[in-house]
Amino acid sequence: MAMTAPRVLVVAGSDSSGGAGLSRDIEAIAAFGLHTALAVTAVTVQTHRQVLAVEAMPPALVADQMRAALGANPVGAIKIGMLARKGTIEAVASVLRAYPHVPAVLDPVLAASSGGALLEPDAVAALTHDLMPLCRLTTPNLQELALLAGSLSVRGEEEVLCQGRNLLDAGAPAVLIKGGHGSGKWSSDILLRPDSEPVRFEALRLNRRLRGTGCMLASAIAALLALDATLEESVRRAKQFVHDHIGRAEETAG
């Protein structure tokens, strides 16, 4: 009998515009030949320009969705995106504790690209201290990194590395600092792990900005982990996947 391919369980919110959230997650995971199981954390009303409304799911319902998905399918990895509030973070953490063998990738969604808040302010500490230590990898962009590390700004690479190490000190097993919102010719992502030198993943910065690229990157990493790739290989291949996707979108727009 043929082995059933592992699924990736996506724990995230919907985006009615289709530009981010579950839509992007499913798209990225399917590109690696895998199917998706879902635990919906919130329903959002969004355009490409603004967040109009957010309706969070009850935390117990989110946890029940996760348990049902894990019980029904061979799950090779978990991708976590928008969580909306503290209770949901705690509920997700409770499920992860029961499945420590399944690698989880956390994309710490704090705000939409348009600027609308997608995580309640009192939930940031819970995200850092209760959930990150349970995840194989956390993937903040520069602004998210500063907020998670308790800083108000980003002032150069040394400070960025210091903020990333603060998250490691708080218990995160690994942190991928995304440089897509930075400046310069090269977009550099930096993988930090305890007792290891930083590993940089570089690509030429493209002019076109797309919503949902953070969702796609974390989902692609989770898909590759589900396929038994190493963490470093998963990050490298996922970054190339997103870079190629943006490049195709740029060509189409041009």
Task: Provide structural commentary.
By secondary structure, the protein is α/β, with parallel strands linked by helices. 40% of the residues lie in helices and 21% in strands. The chain has eight helices and nine strands. It has helices at residues 22-30, 59-72, 86-98, 124-131, 142-148, 157-169, 213-226, 231-253, and strands spanning 7-15, 36-46, 51-56, 75-80, 104-106, 137-138, 175-177, 186-192, 199-204. α1 links the parallel β1 (7-15) and β2 (36-46). α2 (59-72) runs parallel beside α3 (86-98). The longest helix is centred in the C-terminal third of the chain and has 23 residues, at 231-253. The protein is globular and about 45 Å long. The chain starts with 6 loop residues before the first strand and ends with a helix. The relative contact order is 0.15.
Low confidence ranges: none
Number of helices: 8
Q: Determine Rg (CA atoms, Å).
A: 17 Å
The dominant shape is: globular
Question: Which sheet architecture does the biggest sheet show?
Answer: 6 strands, mixed
- State mean pLDDT (0 to 100 scale): 88
Overall helicity: 25-40%
Distance between the termini: 48 Å
Helix-strand makeup class: alpha/beta
Q: H/E element string?
A: EHEEHEHEHEHHEEEHH
| DSSP strand tally | 9
Percentage beta strand = 15-25%
- Strand sequence of the main sheet, in spatial order? 3-2-1-4-5-6
